Structure to design on (336 residues):
C-alpha cells in the first residue's frame, strides 16, 4: 500500500512597515482558482479575508471548512491553510495583513495578552465568521477596504480606527465561551496548541542560539515526538522552520537598513555569513546582495504590486493554460 504524499507547507512572509503595519491585497486579480493546492501555507502576521463572491472550501491543517459570499476569515499567524473555489467558479477575495501588537500599541488593555488572536488562546476559535451571524464584522471589514482603495488624505488614521474597532469586535467573538451559532463552529479545525510554545519562542527569540531539544522541552515532549508532531502540523521540520524565520526576518533588514550582510546574518541568528548566504539563496532563489539590489529598485508600496512578485511568496501557484482571468488576462492568484 503506497504511503500518502506528505502535505507541503510554505512560510509566506509579509513586510509590514513599522509606521503603518498594514498590507492589503484586493481587486479583480484576487479571484482564486478552483484547483485545490497540494500545499498549505502560513503567514508571519494576522490575516483577515473577505469573500466577495461565490463559494468553496478552506483547509486549516488539512481540515476542510466551507465558505461562501459574505464570509470573513480570521487566520492568525502560523496557521497552515489554503483556499479553493468551487468547481467552475473563481471566488473574489480581499485580504488584510496586519500586526495588531504594533498597530494598536498603547491602545489595547494590559489584560489582553493574546494580541495576535492566536487560536490556541481561545477555547472555541472561529476561523470563519459569516455575514448572517456577524454583520458588524462584515460591515467594518468592507469599510476598511473602501477607505484603503480611496486613499484620501488622512486615510491611514481612519483605517487604524476602523481596524481597531474590527479587532475589538473579533476579540469579543473569539473570547465568547458560547458560540453564537452551532453552524459557525461545526467545522472547527484541530488546534495546534501543543506546538504553540515552540512557535512563539521562535518568533520572539529567532536571533538567539537554542536547540530543538530546548523547543521540545517547552512543549513537554521528547525531541522525537516533538519533531514528528511539528512536521505533521506545519508540514516542515522545526529546524527548517527556524531557518525560514531567520531568513525572512533578514529581508526587512536588507530592505530597510544599511547594515552589512555580515552584520545582518549575525543579527538574525546565523553563526556564519556563508551559512546565511546558502540558506537565503535556497529559500529566496537569489543571494542577499541580489535581493537587496532588486528591492532598492522596486517601489514596494505601489498599489499595483502583484503578490506573486512580493518577496515573501516563495513558490506561487503555477496554473495550467486556460485558467487566466477572462476580464484581466492575468492568471488567478492561485490559492490563499
Amino acid at each position: 500500500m503506497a504511503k500518502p504524499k506528505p502535505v507541503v507547507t510554505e512560510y509566506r512572509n509579509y513586510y509590514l512597515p513599522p509606521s503603518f503595519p498594514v498590507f492589503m491585497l484586493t481587486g479583480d486579480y484576487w479571484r482564486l482558482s478552483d484547483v485545490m493546492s497540494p500545499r498549505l501555507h502560513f503567514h508571519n502576521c494576522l490575516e483577515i479575508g473577505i469573500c466577495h463572491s461565490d463559494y468553496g472550501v478552506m483547509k486549516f491543517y488539512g481540515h476542510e471548512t466551507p465558505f461562501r459570499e459574505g464570509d470573513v476569515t480570521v487566520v492568525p499567524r502560523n496557521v497552515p491553510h489554503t483556499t479553493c473555489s468551487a468547481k467552475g467558479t473563481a471566488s473574489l477575495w480581499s485580504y488584510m495583513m496586519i500586526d495588531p501588537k504594533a498597530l494598536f500599541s498603547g491602545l489595547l488593555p494590559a489584560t489582553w495578552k493574546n494580541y495576535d488572536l492566536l487560536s490556541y488562546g481561545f477555547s472555541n476559535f472561529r476561523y470563519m465568521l459569516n455575514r448572517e451571524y456577524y454583520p458588524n464584522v462584515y460591515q467594518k471589514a468592507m469599510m476598511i477596504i473602501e477607505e484603503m482603495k480611496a486613499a484620501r488624505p488622512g486615510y491611514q488614521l481612519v483605517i487604524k480606527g476602523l481596524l481597531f474597532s474590527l479587532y475589538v469586535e473579533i476579540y469579543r467573538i473569539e473570547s465568547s465561551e458560547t458560540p453564537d451559532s452551532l453552524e459557525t463552529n461545526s467545522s472547527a479545525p484541530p488546534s495546534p496548541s501543543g506546538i504553540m510554545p515552540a512557535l512563539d519562542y521562535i518568533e520572539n527569540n529567532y536571533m538567539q542560539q537554542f536547540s530543538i531539544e530546548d523547543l521540545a522541552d517547552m512543549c513537554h515532549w521528547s525531541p522525537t515526538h516533538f519533531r514528528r508532531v511539528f512536521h505533521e502540523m506545519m508540514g516542515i521540520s522545526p529546524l527548517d522552520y527556524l531557518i525560514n524565520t531567520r531568513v525572512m526576518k533578514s529581508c526587512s533588514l536588507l530592505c530597510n537598513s544599511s547594515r552589512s550582510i555580515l552584520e545582518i546574518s549575525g543579527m538574525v541568528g546565523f553563526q556564519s555569513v556563508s551559512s546565511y548566504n546558502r540558506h537565503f539563496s535556497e529559500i529566496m532563489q537569489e543571494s542577499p546582495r541580489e535581493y537587496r539590489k532588486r528591492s532598492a529598485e522596486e517601489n514596494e508600496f505601489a498599489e499595483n504590486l502583484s503578490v506573486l512578485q512580493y518577496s515573501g511568496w516563495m513558490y506561487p501557484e503555477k496554473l495550467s493554460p486556460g485558467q487566466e482571468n477572462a476580464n484581466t488576462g492575468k492568471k488567478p492568484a492561485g490559492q490563499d
